Amino acid sequence: xxxxxxxxxxxxxxxxxxxxxxxxxxxxxxQPGAGTISVKPLNKPHEEWRELVSPAAYRVLFEEDTxxxxxxxxxxxxxxxxxxxxxxxLPLFNSAxxxxxxxxxxxxxxxxxxxxxxxxxxxxxxxxxxxxxARCGGHQGHVFTDGPLPRGERWCNNGLAxxxxxxxxxxxxxxx
Length: 176
Ligand SMILES: [Zn+2]
Description:
- The chain has one domain: Metal Binding Protein, Guanine Nucleotide Exchange Factor, Chain A, CATH 2.170.150.20.
- The protein is built from 2 helices and 9 strands.
- It has helices at 3-27, 55-63, and strands at residues 81-85, 91-94, 98-99, 107-108, 116-121, 128-133, 139-144, 154-157, 162-166.
- The strands form 2 sheets. Strands 3-4-8-7-6-5 form a 6-stranded antiparallel beta sheet. The chain has a 3-stranded antiparallel beta sheet with strand order 2-1-9, with no helix packed on it.
- Residues 85, 87-88, 90, 133, 135-136, 138 line the site of zinc ion (ZN).
């Protein structure tokens, strides 16, 4: 290897971390597919939801707990309908966007546009993108970039944080 080749290699090494940092930022962008927020946030203290949801749902929604994989009946739910936030009843997902990811958690290729917001979560050391209900702030799950094409997104949701309403039933009024 001549001197020029060595210099070129060094230059490449200097560039690499920049490239990988950029692609990581792109892969877990702050709003992957979530869209512009289209609902008015509800400024209800989290504590007040304690009376309205089960203790297990409260831990997921407002303490960012994760239910054990395979524990939700919604994994096997395949009827047409709407998935609402279990706390405030804001519709978050349509059944048409649900798919079997094999992870043990209800999974979707996309949320209802503007009804969830995302933030970076560093609890597992490597950053993950957490998402929550745009209205009440209830934690729902994490979004990953290994989902099916064309979007390539996997919205991995806790079943406890959702309420399913079949298509032939009326959606309940939003809770406030
Ligand atoms: Zn909500």
